[in-house]
Design brief:
The protein is mainly β. It has no helices and 16 strands. The strands form 3 sheets. A 10-stranded parallel beta sheet has the order 3-5-6-7-8-9-10-11-13-15, with no helix packed on it. A 3-stranded antiparallel beta sheet has the order 2-1-4, with no helix packed on it. The radius of gyration is 21 Å and the shape is elongated.
Length: 254
Amino acid sequence: MLTDVTLTCQLTDGSFIHKSVSNDSTSISLRKMDITSVNLTPLSSLSRLEHFSVSYNPLKILDLQPLSNCKNLKVLRMTGCALKSINLDTLHKLNHLEQLSVSFNNLTKLDLSPLSSCAKLELLTINRNKLENIDLSPLASCSNLKTLNIGQNPLKSVDLTPLSSCENLFSLVLNKTMIQSIDLSPLETLGNIQGLDLSENLLKMINLRPLRNCNEMYEINLDDNPSRSIVVRKGFSCPGLKISPDAKIIEVDE
């Protein structure tokens, strides 16, 4: 007979609460509970767990190792937890993971290597952190990735090459960074991409010619960049193209 497990959580006022969880639970949410620390060890026996969220708690530190036994985990949300660091090593054992969010934290480094084992990953959001660089190489194994948000980080450069393997990519958000140039050629063969946000960067020149085969592209946001010229292939069309008022579209033949 399966017995319940108990999560012990410390709150911002120093008190403790004990949350009872059924051993056959498929979803657990600790969202917005003012938790400063929680030991996830009891979750190691929850083999049926599919959704887990600790979002919007002032945690600062979180050990994910106990989740390594949650083989069916599909959704993991750690948004707005004031995390300064997070070790994702455990995720290489979670082959069914589809969604991962570590947005709105204070991360200065993030190793995505464990995600190379997450072939079913569809959504990854790491926006609103303090990352100056990010290696996207592990995402080359995530062919099912549909949404990627790495915006609102002080990134100085980013190599999109690994995304050329993400044939199902639908939306890429890379706004409000410090990048001055971007090579979009890795997106050239992504026929399913519909949204690209490069707004509020420091882009001095924007070349959209690599997107000539992205026939499903519906929205490209280039607003608030210092670039005064947007280079596109002659005949290029995007219904939702947003550019700065003083920027000009330059059409060129291939």
